[in-house]
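HUMAN: Forgive my ignorance: could you write out one protein's sequence and backbone structure tokens?

ASSISTANT:
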Amino acid sequence: MIINLNKFLASDEKFFNVNRDFIIDDEEFLARTHLNNTIVFNGDFFKVDDNILLSGTLKYNYSEVCARCLTEFQNEVETKFEAIVVRNNEEDEDESDEIKLVIEDGCVNLDDNIKQLVYLSMPMKSLCKDDCKGICPTCGVNLNEEECKCQNIITDPRLEKLKTLLKD
């Protein structure tokens, strides 16, 4: 996604909003992330002193497998980020966690940054719903869909000898 900032830079305006759908055509990226190919980008560019700042939001959804019940579902993520727009890509001596966007010919290319933000914002484990019951460890039945018929009396084999004390 290339955003042209020429008019914004030449004007006296202090604020510029961009709201666009970003279409990803990188098949390898889509296959690794199971992402739907459209990401909604909403960004506000601000002029602050001699700097340009970007405050943005990404919304996307992707196919995920629940960490508890192993059913596939569509997960939706919204992530916020901030970046600074710089004129050249010189390496700063101080390494910071800031996202830096390079402006070239009045345009900013967000392709790589958006992909990186998607990777970083994807949850490690996702649940299909907050109160997901998962699967039975004995018979493997999805406890969200049906009752388990197991007795679920699982004891630690190291403590099995203690049962004999209760029989007396």
Observations:
- The chain has two domains: 2-132, 133-168.
- The radius of gyration is 25 Å.
- The helical segments are 6-10, 27-33, 111-121, 163-167.
